[in-house]
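From the pipeline queue, job 12 of 40. The input is one protein chain; the requested action is below.

Action: predict structure.
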Amino acid sequence: RALRPPEPGMSEALAAGSIRQEANAALRPERQSGVELGGAIHLASGAWIRVTWYDQRADDLIQQVDLRRPSATTRFYQFQNVGAITNRGVELDGGASFGRLSAAARLHVVPSRVARLAESYTGEFEAGDRPLEVPTTMGSAAIRYDAGALRLEAGATWLGPWTGYDWQLVYRVELGQAPQRDRAREYWLEYDGILRPFLGAHVDLAGGLGAWL
């Protein structure tokens, strides 16, 4: 179990320029509970694999909610407890060595969902939504070659699909180039996954220095 109280000032009424934060005396601490099970195998050859499964529930997560009150110059918001979010997933990683060659890979599967909304919540989430800016999967894989002072590496990183804000639309609305949306979730955008390959080299130099590319 874990408990995280609201940050100082989150429950108070504050004002700064054209921004107004409304008080929320009923703001509760964030709570998380659940279980993790895992195991690891290490072989004499240096190969290894590790698996972790988890089933967690986060209650009363705090979100900054845009109150969307009609005003040409002032933005109103309030920190509110969202409700309950389930986090059930698995983490896999492993690696092996073959002489001068070594390889390693990692995969995280993160199927988070909003399970229940708090009665006092007035924000953009609905039951069944994925939390914003949380990819469904993440991973990486790389192969490395070591030859004395020289190390070469090639691989790729993966960031799975996620739901986030359409920031281009937000900026266009702020500039008056697009009509304002009635609901905050109308600014959401489904982002595709991203695969990014990479190449690298590192050379050890004299005097404890090194050069890399």
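Job complete. The longest strand covers residues 83-98.
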